[in-house]
Amino acid sequence: NGSPSYSYNDSSTYESYGDGYVLSAKEKQMMQEHYSLNQLEKADRSPEEQRLYYAYKDVLPSDQERIHFLSLPTLSAKENWLQRMGYSTMDKSVSRELASIIADKDIAVGMSMTSVKESWGEPKMEEFSGDPRLGNARWTFTKYIRGEEGYQRQDRLVVFQGGHVVGWETK
């Protein structure tokens, strides 16, 4: 039965799917915002706009603010909005090359842990050697790749020293 049905509970609307999972109206709105943000992040924009977005993405407190920022029509409008919001005094520098790598959902030797999360999302597993604050770690990411025999699981192990990528392996 893949079609949603609606029910009411304590004056809140819920959407229910055939598998029994129920989304509240707030959860549904959050999912829609996240989807909209994902689509805007994939949109074609200038390297300068990409650099500016990835320089400030992590300090914008919500998907709504990120959506608003990405929806502004020009680089100048984006810069002015950041200044009005009080973000312009921040010392953020993301190179064009790094912004391009992140936008392509790729990683490179020397990337910080934060940049890897920007590119690939949260790791499935994080293992640390010694004090986690030192940034010596191995993270595991799982991705499903479509092939001739359907989707195949691919595990990617990323190794960090001092909080920066020193290598990775795909299994």
What does this entry look like structurally?
This protein is of the alpha+beta class and 171 residues long. The chain has a domain of 65 residues: Beta-lactamase Inhibitory Protein, Chain:B, domain 1 (2-Layer Sandwich). 37% of the residues lie in helices and 27% in strands. The protein has 6 helices and 7 strands; from the N terminus they run βββααααααββββ. The strands form 2 sheets. The protein has a 4-stranded antiparallel β-sheet with strand order 4-5-6-7. A 3-stranded antiparallel β-sheet has the order 1-2-3. Helix 1 packs parallel to helix 3 and helix 2 crosses helix 5. The protein is globular. The two termini are 36 Å apart. The relative contact order is 0.09. The N terminus is likely disordered.
Tags for this model:
alpha+beta; 37% helix; disordered N terminus; globular; single chain; 7 strands; four-stranded antiparallel β-sheet; 27% strand; 171 residues; Beta-lactamase Inhibitory Protein, Chain:B, domain 1; three-stranded antiparallel β-sheet
Question: What distance separates the N and C termini?
Answer: 36 Å
Instruction: Determine the strand fraction and express it as a percent band.
Output: 25-35%
Provide the succession of SSEs.
EEEHHHHHHEEEE
What spatial form do the alpha-carbon principal axes imply?
A: globular
Largest sheet: spatial strand order:
4-5-6-7
Low-confidence segments, given as residue ranges, are 1-13
- CATH topology name of the domain at 107-171, in short, is Beta-lactamase Inhibitory Protein, Chain:B, domain 1
How many strands in all?
7
Derived structural class: alpha+beta
